[in-house]
Amino acid sequence: MEKKHITINNNGVIIPAVLWGKPNKRLLIEVHGKCSYKEDTVISIMAEKAVSTGYQVLSFDLPMHGKRIPDKYECNPENCISDLQAVYAFAENIASNISLFACSMGAYFSLLAYHDLDLRQSLFLSPVVNMERLIDNMIKTYQCKRRET
User: Fold this and answer.
1) What secondary structure letter does DSSP report for 118?
2) Which domains can be identified in the chain, with CATH numbers?
């Protein structure tokens, strides 16, 4: 599969990215999760599937992930939203039909950044399958730690 490494400029902040497949009017933006990167397994698998169905795919490293680990640009909502908006602006210049695939933390940041954009479709993958249990466990852990101090 054709794969081209590129950079996207976000007001002087350089975002390493990959274009998977040949140019196409249909483009899938892929956003990885925490401790992942633009070419991680789940991103690569989805890119292969999307390209085989006629999409070009654009993936990139979020702040403090992948090639951006050494950067001093923090991975926080403000910076991630800004980066996601720059990635979308880049995508608009190369495709007319844009969809989204986002994982975990990437899904959260994508919802913040793209909530009012005209995406063809959005697909989300999250390791959290039972949010109620997760919150209950967090509360129990917090309560235990408070008792210990």
Assistant:
1) -
2) 3-148 (3.40.50.1820)
Instruction: Report residue 99 as tokens.
Output: 């969809």
Cβ count near 128 (within 10 Å):
10
CA 105 from centre of chain: 8
The tens-digit pLDDT sequence of the chain (149 residues) is 899 999 999 999 999 999 999 999 999 999 999 889 999 999 999 999 999 999 999 999 999 999 999 999 999 999 999 999 999 999 999 999 999 999 989 999 999 999 999 899 999 997 776 767 777 777 777 655 444 44
CA dist 118 → 6, 11, 30 (Å): 24, 23, 16
